[in-house]
Specification:
The structure holds three protein chains of three kinds.
Chain A: H1 6-25, H2 33-44, H3 49-59, H4 63-72, E1 84-88, H5 92-96, H6 99-110, E2 116-117, E3 123-125, E4 140-142, E5 145-147, H7 152-163, H8 205-213
Chain B: H1 11-26, E1 30-35, H2 45-58, E2 66-71, E3 83-86, E4 90-92, H3 100-109, E5 119-120, E6 127-128, H4 156-161, H5 166-174, H6 177-187, H7 199-208, E7 215-220, H8 229-236, H9 238-252, E8 256-261, H10 266-281, E9 297-302, H11 312-319, E10 343-347, H12 348-360, H13 362-366, E11 376-383, E12 389-394, H14 399-406, E13 416-421, E14 427-430, H15 440-445, E15 454-459, H16 464-478, H17 484-501, H18 509-523, H19 527-530, H20 534-542, H21 544-552, E16 567-569, H22 579-583, E17 589-590, E18 598-599, H23 609-613, E19 619-621
Parallel strand pairs in B: 1-2, 7-8, 7-10, 8-9, 11-15
Antiparallel strand pairs in B: 1-3, 3-4, 5-6, 11-12, 13-14, 13-15, 16-19, 17-18
Helix pairs in contact in B: 5-9, 5-12, 6-7, 6-9, 8-9, 8-10, 9-12, 16-17, 16-20, 17-18, 18-20, 20-21
Chain C: E1 7-10, E2 13-16, H1 23-29, E3 53-57, E4 62-66, E5 76-79, H2 83-99, H3 104-113, H4 135-144, E6 150-152, E7 159-161, H5 176-180, E8 187-191, E9 196-200, E10 204-210, E11 217-220, H6 221-240, H7 246-260, H8 270-273
Parallel strand pairs in C: 1-5
Antiparallel strand pairs in C: 1-2, 3-4, 3-5, 6-7, 8-9, 9-10, 10-11
Helix pairs in contact in C: 2-3
Classes of the chains: A alpha+beta, B alpha/beta, C alpha+beta.
Chain lengths: 214, 622, 275
């Protein structure tokens, strides 16, 4: 590592520690290469070159194979994520209901690049071949939140709002982010209004009323 | 959720555990099942569930016990979020979080129904109180999805209380491996992933294959767009898949299982992981299961976003940490599969059927379905159909019964045009075949295939040439690129279809597509390439007139392909409001107050703006 | 039961075969020509190009299979020159010609197969006529053991590349990839001035080693190191004297041999013995 800058060294050190932990998690089994890469991406938001080199070294697997895998599977990103991830469903039903036009429009409007991050760093745009929510076509998942029944206008509006820092409006509830690990489901509920329950709402209210009344 | 988990040492202990879980369930007075399936989650179902949990928690009382359950898909996705309240099976649709207090007060406490949340028949106005009264549910019979929508998707206790793992216990105590294979064979179960290969026969070959260790694999890489059956299954009843796999491992002599789940299904991954954890805690996975001597464990791998990994050899390559490149099947994966060892791969829906079959018997299973296609099949009924949702029906039901009886026909008064089955490997079935039964062989004879179960309905506004182009575009994206015919041939088909949809079609294009279809069928390496031309060939076979119109007349009969149809203002409907005139980017519209506006076709660029902005729908596509 | 060699009948002519051989092995051994592109005798079959397809009798129907990797396990009947097999091979070649319209090697093979032209337009981009046969990748991984390059991407956008499209740190500059490339996509260039060998288009540049005595180019420095590492002590020893070109080394050896013999002993002088 002669000649590397302090930044490089700390990047290397960081890479080593993180990757070593991941390799150990899978008992150093080269067959678990893809889950390892998924874990790296879950942590970093993308696959940094240093991490991948470290993975190659640590596992005894050629870097070329790791690069092959990183470029073959659509889930992997070699460049950092934008502020927001937009997955537009390009499945058959969404297609029939106009996802093509939506895709064209939002790409133009926000400078989106399929499979990459927009120049302003705001959006990583990942057209996805079916998210399995076909009853709601056309569907877009932004930062893990589903937006269904889209029109060209509503899609543009949602993305503008998100770009400006606002959240999406209810009623769509948060779901786990697509490439995050488990337990995202357990995040708290968004925007719920507290409801005042009274004694009448108790399941045995009738019984009690009877008792009391008589 | 229940008692402290201890390893269940025997079938008896499991039975005791089940009895205890049932006893606890018996003490519950009201059960609120909130559907959190693929169609309801995006509409806020989770928040509905959490409100019920909040209410049940805040208002808990020794007297009346209320249990909200977060369930898997209850079927009628179109009307989600769905909430079912028992006793009574009261079926609420379109439930929002703010409706919860009313449901609580009226139904849970008051025992009455909230009229406005009931399903209402659009024609008659009659309201249905239970699912059984809703036309969508007529003819359904859930086997793979038996406990989906019934049990809490995250609870092993619920699954066991409802009869889960009874099949496994029976297999481990009262059946031999050969006996299990016998039963599977007699049942007539065929692979539910699309291939339709007889499952019993596959298990027999796997049992006989020499070599160790043997692997059991569940294919959860549901990639066909429009299909979400496996997603619903894995999210709603993950234990059914696990139970099936443990039984399969016992039958063929394997202790190592893998479930390969599509990366785009994070909820499914999480549910399966949790379920595997629960099963391990109870000793239903691991060493010496239920004291039988059979050991089995499952590892869950996520896909990386590649449709081709649904192909068995590509899936196995992915499990080996390599790119998803298929390989030749001259030596079958049963003999030499994952890591070169005998591997038994089945779709998750196939696995989910197994516990039911061993428990209730082959004869029971074979009493459903047709002669060559036994049992039931799960379909995702989507597209231009009134009641989109998840459907499990006996094989042999006709397309009409499914699309019109269950699906409620085509919305908007439009005419049915075709139903697409089998995903990118399948084809389009036209109206004249609506009375055909849904079964493996018949669908293949009709020029399509069963596939994984995606059933996409299309109406008169769908251009079939564009549908073909869509599927070819999809395959070009997903082709692994290894073999020449798929990599180059699919790109060539896309070029031709794109030209045709742009009005640049030429004489000979259809013949070229047919030639490429034959070439792909003969020379492609795997099923993705071999069947890549099916959507094209089936639309050429059934809708040749549309191709001819595009090519010869530069006209799109469905009026979908931009530039290949015209816009015209209906003089009678036009109110001369002038909006279209103002919005037209090339000033092609002329008109004055009280005079019907007219589009100058010479100037018109077919942008469709007038069509979109007219408030009186006076602009027609001709 | 005596072991009987399976019979592979090709276009009506029966031939003995070993279990585990491929149809292509049997055909070649018996002088039957089947075109190939991604096949190489020294590498595992890859069956990607599909240009070697033939038909086999499955009893009731004929299956089109790649002859380069179809394993012979029992008697089989093969048709190489059937219409269907020929049409299939030609169709594949037409697709390849569309991808690489300017490759002379491909055009030669096409002509030999009876394909004069392709009806297809060019719709995919091929880097310098690359047909994605994968031979370069496979030789580097299987035989050289460096795995410096791999197939990156998926589908029509697939390309052979070094990681991150930068010069590979694992390339030893041996040139095996160029040696196996059937269409000349890969080229080895020596840059005398820089003392480097370049593998194009992978941007690999490896230092050349020169004779310590006369300065002649000896080959890639990394190849020597790799051979030393893989060959063990014996090879290291052999190569230890390897800082010299063969001519200088022989001259040195002659001097050493002469010095080992005491003056006056034996017949003749050292200079008589040296060649």
């Amino acid at each position: 590592m002669a000649g590397k800058s302090q930044d490089d060294l700390s990047a290397c050190g960081h890479a080593q520690a993180g990757v070593a932990g991941i390799i150990e998690r899978y008992s150093g089994d080269p067959g678990m290469l893809i889950p390892m890469m998924q874990d790296i991406q879950a942590g970093e938001g993308y696959l940094p070159r240093e991490e991948l080199k470290e993975l190659a070294r640590g596992l005894g697997v050629p870097l070329s194979r790791i690069y092959s895998i990183a470029t073959f599977y659509a889930a992997f990103r070699l460049m950092p994520k934008g502020d927001h991830t937009v997955q537009l469903c390009m499945g058959t039903v969404c297609f029939l209901k106009g996802s093509g036009k939506i895709s064209e429009t939002i790409q133009k409007e926000f400078g989106l690049v399929p499979g990459a991050t927009s120049a302003d760093g705001k959006f990583t745009f990942a057209p996805v071949n079916c998210v399995g929510a076909c009853a709601l076509a056309p569907v877009m998942v932004v930062d893990g939140e589903y937006h269904g029944g889209l029109t060209v206008d509503s899609a543009v509006e949602i993305l503008h709002r998100i770009a400006e820092g606002g959240g999406a409006e209810a009623p769509v509830a948060p779901g786990p982010a697509a490439s995050d690990g488990p337990s995202a489901e357990k995040k708290g509920r968004a925007g719920s209004t507290t409801v005042k329950y009274t004694a009448e709402d108790r399941p045995d209210a009738k019984k009690r009323a009877k008792k009391k009344g008589k | 959720m229940g008692t402290v988990a201890t390893k269940l040492e025997s079938a008896e202990t499991l039975a005791e555990y089940r009895a205890a879980a049932r006893e606890r369930a018996a003490r519950i007075d009201r059960v609120v099942r909130v559907c959190c399936g693929p169609g309801c989650i995006p509409k806020g179902a989770r928040e509905v569930y959490e409100r019920f949990v909040e209410a049940a928690g805040e208002l808990a009382d020794g007297g009346v016990a209320v249990e909200p359950k977060l369930t898997g898909c209850q079927g009628l996705c179109q009307r989600g979020p769905i909430v079912t309240v028992d006793p009574g099976g009261i079926f609420y649709q379109g439930v929002k979080a703010d409706d919860v207090p009313e449901i609580w007060r009226t139904t849970v406490v008051g025992g009455r129904v909230v009229e406005r949340l009931l399903y209402e028949d659009e024609q008659t106005g009659v309201k249905a109180q239970t699912a059984a009264e809703i036309p969508f549910y007529r003819g359904h019979h859930r086997i793979a999805l038996a406990l989906c929508g019934v049990v809490d998707a995250r609870s092993v206790d619920d699954y066991i209380a409802a009869g889960g793992y009874e099949g496994l216990a029976k297999v481990l105590t009262a059946m031999t491996p050969d006996g299990v294979i016998e039963e599977l064979t007699k049942s007539g179960l065929r692979g539910r992933g699309g291939g339709g290969f007889p499952t019993g026969r596959k298990w027999r070959s796997a049992r006989n294959a020499p070599g160790e260790p043997k692997y059991v694999i569940a294919n959860g890489d549901e990639g066909d767009p429009g299909a979400f059956m496996d997603r619903a299954l894995m999210e709603g009843v993950p234990h059914a898949v696990i139970e099936g796999m443990v039984i399969g491992g016992y039958a063929i002599g394997s202790s190592d299982g893998y479930i390969y789940v599509r990366d785009e299904y994070p909820i499914a991954v999480e549910r399966l992981r949790d379920a595997v954890g629960q099963a391990r805690e109870l000793g239903l996975l691991g060493e010496d299961i239920l004291g039988s001597g059979h050991s089995f464990d499952i590892r869950i791998n996520r896909g990386g976003g590649a449709f081709v990994c649904g192909e068995s050899t590509a899936l196995m390559a992915s499990l080996e940490g390599r790119v998803g490149e298929p390989r030749a099947k001259y030596i079958h994966t049963i003999e030499s599969g994952l890591k070169g060892k005998p591997s038994l791969l089945n779709n998750v829906e196939t696995w989910a059927n197994v516990p039911q079959i061993v428990l209730k018997g082959a004869d029971w299973f074979a009493s459903f379905g047709t002669e060559k296609s036994k049992g039931t099949k799960v379909f995702s009924l989507v597209g231009k159909v009134t009641n989109t949702g998840l459907v499990e029906v006996p094989m042999g039901m006709t397309l009409r019964e499914i699309i019109y009886g269950i699906g409620g026909g085509i919305p908007g008064g439009k005419a049915f045009k075709a139903v697409q089955t089998g995903g990118p490997s399948g084809g389009c079935i036209p109206a004249e075949c609506l009375d055909e039964p849904v079964d493996f062989d018949r669908l293949t004879e009709l020029g399509s295939m069963m596939g994984s179960g995606g059933m996409i309905v299309m109406d008169e506004d769908t251009c079939m040439v564009n549908v073909a182009r869509y599927f070819v575009h999809f395959l070009k994206d997903e082709s692994c690129g290894k073999c020449t015919p798929c990599r180059e041939g699919v790109a060539q088909m896309l070029e031709i279809l794109t030209r045709i949809t742009k009005g640049e079609g030429r004489q000979g294009d259809v013949e070229a597509l047919e030639g490429l279809g034959t070439l792909l069928e003969d020379t492609a390496l795997c099923a993705l390439g071999k069947t890549a031309a099916h959507p094209v060939l089936s639309t050429v076979r059934r809708f040749r007139d549309e191709y001819e119109a595009h090519i010869k007349e530069k006209r799109c009969p469905a009026k979908e392909c931009p530039g290949l149809f015209r816009y015209q203002i209906d003089a009678e409907a036009c109110r001369a409001c002038g909006i279209c005139l103002k919005k037209c980017p090339v000033e092609a519209i002329t008109g004055a107050k009280k005079t019907a506006h007219v589009i100058d076709l010479e100037k018109c660029t077919n942008c469709g703006t007038c069509f979109e902005v007219c408030p009186f729908s006076a602009v027609l596509k001709v | 039961m005596r072991y009987r060699m399976p019979t592979v009948t090709i276009d009506g002519r029966p031939f003995d075969a070993e279990v585990g051989e491929t149809i292509l092995d049997v055909a070649r051994r018996n002088g039957i020509w089947i075109p190939t592109l991604c096949h190489h005798a020294a590498l595992e079959p890859y069956a990607a190009c599909r240009i070697c397809v033939v038909e086999i009798d499955r009893g009731g129907w004929w299956q089109v299979v790649t002859s380069c990797n179809y394993p012979v396990r029992r008697d089989i009947t093969v048709r190489v020159e059937s219409e269907r097999a020929q049409r299939a091979r030609r169709g594949v070649m037409q697709l390849l010609l569309a991808r690489c319209p300017e490759s002379p090697e491909l055009a030669d093979l096409a002509r030999r197969m009876g394909v004069e032209a392709t009806p297809y337009p060019k719709v995919t981009e091929a880097q310098r006529n690359c047909i994605l046969c994968g031979l370069c990748v496979r030789v580097c991984e299987e035989r050289i053991g460096s795995a410096a390059i791999s197939l990156a991407g998926r589908g029509a956008d697939r390309a052979v590349a070094a990681p991150f499209r930068l010069a590979s740190e694992d390339c030893i500059g041996c040139g095996a990839c160029a040696a196996v490339c059937p269409v000349g996509t890969i080229v080895v260039r020596t840059h005398e001035d820089a003392g480097e060998v370049e593998i194009s288009p992978f941007k690999s540049r490896v230092k050349l080693r020169r004779c310590a005595q006369c300065g002649e180019i000896l080959g890639s420095e990394l190849v020597r190191r790799a051979l030393g590492a893989r060959g063990g002590p014996t090879v290291v020893e052999i190569l230890a004297g390897g800082d010299l070109c063969p001519r200088c080394r022989r001259a040195k050896q002659a001097r050493e041999l002469a010095a080992a013999v005491p003056a006056g002993a034996g017949s003749g002088t050292a200079s008589d013995r040296c060649g």
